[in-house]
What does this fold into?
Amino acid sequence: MSATRALAEFALGVDAEATPEAVRHEALRILVDCVGCAVAGVVTPAGRIALEMARDERGPLTARLVGGGRASLMPAAFATTVLCNALDYEPVGPEGHVCAVAVPVALAVADAVDAPGSELLAGLLAGLEAGGRVGGALRRVGQSGAKVTPAVRGTAHAVFAAVAAAGRILRLTPAQMHEAFGIAGYSATLPTLKKVMSSEHAPMTKYDHLGLIAQNGIQAALLARKGFTGDRSVLEGEYGFWRFAGALGYDEDFVTRDLGATWTIGQTWFKRYPVILYTTPVLDTVRRLMAESGLVADAIERVEVATTRPNAVQAVSEVRDEMDAWTSTPYNVAVAAHDVRPRRAWQQPATYRRPDLVRLTRAVTVRALRADELPPAGNYWEGWCPVRVTVHSGQAHEGAQDRLPRIEDDEIDKKFRDNVVGLLSDDAAERLRTACWRAAGIGSAREITELIGTATAPARAG
It folds into this structure.
């Protein structure tokens, strides 16, 4: 059996009840976190634009929009994906920004066909694992240890997360699912991450046009259901998906090895801050040094940061808009030191224009770690991300962190509440949080989507 067919049939056969409890729980953590991020995304310009686009679309299959109303299935999934990713606060993994595609697609399709929560969860599991398997097979080859990001990089493989989630919930036949995977592979976006990370300023499309990936994956499933054919060996061979996705190589065995027995979903990283993932250890270290030494943000004279991943887009020290506020490491340090809450406010004009934050932003310098400063090399997919930080406030306070942090359930719950406060009523927020955690047992996925639909975006400040 080809890898394409094996993965397609695996995704179609995912049964939430038969999945290991730890894997189900991780998927629920991802669902809770992504839903909170999607609600918080209504405050962003990108989120507002995506919702406006979706509301103009109508079709035979419709899905609930964040903030209310319904739209055609594909534009609705597009909008929710943009919202989920708008703050860059959602979980990352397995292998890149797969969660921001899998969750919105599963929610939209489950809403469109009024699927029970168990089917929503099955679709989410299928999508996360399919995306993680293809992503790992492409992205890990030649990238073990302390390696720079290759020239061609992105999350094009997330289209398999979208088609797997959609196809599983739509209950395609095995033949249709196989065709859908072939169509999806040809529907992936170009890998653009390196271009964005090397630019002075980031666009709203970010490192990958994730909304389009979500939309294209659903379309692939719908086309296959009507009889449209795809490349049934899209993942195989010298000129398979890995090649036209620009990967350095392809570990085909990774796609199918121990399917159903081992899962990549656990290799997902949750964020404490709405920033580029690898900025997290920097901010953790700054905040830890402040707490240990009793430092006050306004008394900090300057901060020196050394990291393994200094990208051009992260060097901005004069924040001009919400995209700079997302990418700028100096600004991220400043706003984390001041502990601005809710954290979705980090990317609001009223925050990034604050004089105290502007002052501290200008006092932060970032450089690459020297070879002699690096700890023994690890792998990025295992959270290896060493940073060294010195905070100057009367004297020098030095700290280090070598890996991304693991986030426990209680922190995910606190983050969810922080994300939705003021956008949902307290009652709706608690019912939504509970419904997400209980997804496997709810009668309809619409118990979740209808609550998301009650979100209200405040007028844009600044």
Q: What stands out?
A: The chain is about 45% helix and 10% strand. Strands lie at 62-64, 70-72, 302-307, 364-368, 384-393, 395-403. The chain has a mean pLDDT of 96. The chain has two domains: 3-256, 277-403.
